[in-house]
Design goal:
Blueprint lengths: L2 H28 L3 H12 L5 H14 L5 H17 L10 H27 L8 H8 L8 H28 L8 H26 L10 H9 L2 H16 L3 H22 L4
Helix pairs in contact: 2-3, 2-5, 3-4, 4-7, 4-8, 5-7, 6-7, 6-11, 7-10, 7-11, 8-10
């Protein structure tokens, strides 16, 4: 076979696979509501390269979701917190801004992938690809009687307790790093914890009673829920879990990830119980 013919076969194969993939996505979207079809398209095409790109994707998601959709409130919380942390670097600046930015972008990518996987699985009657932690939120998206801040914290639970350790490992692999407790990267990570402790209560209070066009909800639940779910503790556990996973392979790694996912799913469903 000539080089030209060989290239032609490869190109033909790639085009065929691309067309098959597009056909599969189109069939999946045909079984979804109009809103979810748009959401799937946004999440599937998300390829952020910066924090500004991440925020733009979240803004697109916010624009299409109605107030009755619980995912809107996690997405809005995530957007607010991302923007506020980005605008409030620690005094003197970050010690490794490239690592922190890469982590933020990779981390957000796990959220967008969870949406895409969840919607694709929903259209097919369920999918083992979606993490149990995210299923807890997706199953309750349109359920009445759940406060906006509950949806927001259930999303944070899935994203931090399930996704963050994996995002840390991917970021470290991308940059060829293995930061320890005494590293500049860990110092930046802990500084973000401090910022989140400051901005999260105000952001949740805004979701409870400051959203234009939405009925005010009990702001007293903010303190009660934050007493149950501590963002700094969750992030510290994610760092430790990433270190644990770094030393595991094969079945041992799969078992550890599955146990973490099951526990995170239980916590998520508990956060979504009536209060």
């Amino acid at each position: 076979m000539s080089a030209r013919m060989g290239r032609g076969v490869v190109l033909s194969t790639m085009m065929s696979r691309a067309m098959t993939s597009c056909t599969r996505i189109n069939r999946t979207m045909a079984t979804l509501s109009s809103t979810d079809a748009q959401l799937l398209e946004i999440a599937s095409n998300a390829a952020p390269g910066s924090i500004a790109d991440v925020a733009a994707v979240m803004e697109s998601i916010d624009a299409i979701l109605p107030g009755s959709d619980g995912l809107k409130w996690f997405n809005q919380l995530y957007l607010m917190v991302t923007q506020q942390v980005d605008l409030q670097p620690q005094a003197g600046g970050w010690k490794d801004p490239a690592w922190l930015t890469r982590l933020d972008v990779v981390f957000a990518g796990f959220y967008f992938s969870a949406i895409a996987d969840g919607l694709s699985g929903s259209a097919k009657g369920g999918s083992a690809k979606t993490a149990n932690a995210w299923d807890a939120l997706f199953e309750a998206r349109n359920r009445a009687g759940i406060d906006r801040i509950q949806f927001a914290l259930a999303g944070m639970n899935a994203h931090i307790n399930h996704d963050l350790a994996l995002a840390l490992l991917q970021t470290d692999d991308d940059l060829g790093l293995a930061p320890g407790i005494d590293s500049p990267e860990h110092d930046d990570y802990e500084s973000v914890n401090g910022l989140l402790e400051k901005v999260l209560p105000a952001a949740l209070t805004f979701l409870a009673n400051g959203v234009l066009g939405e009925l005010a909800q009990d702001t007293g639940n903010v303190g009660r829920l934050l007493a149950i779910w501590d963002v700094s503790a969750a992030r510290d556990l994610a760092w430790g879990f990433a270190d644990h996973l770094r030393n595991l392979t094969g079945v041992d790694r799969d078992v550890a990830l599955d146990a973490q996912d099951q526990l995170t799913g239980v916590i998520g469903r508990a956060l979504l119980l009536p209060i």
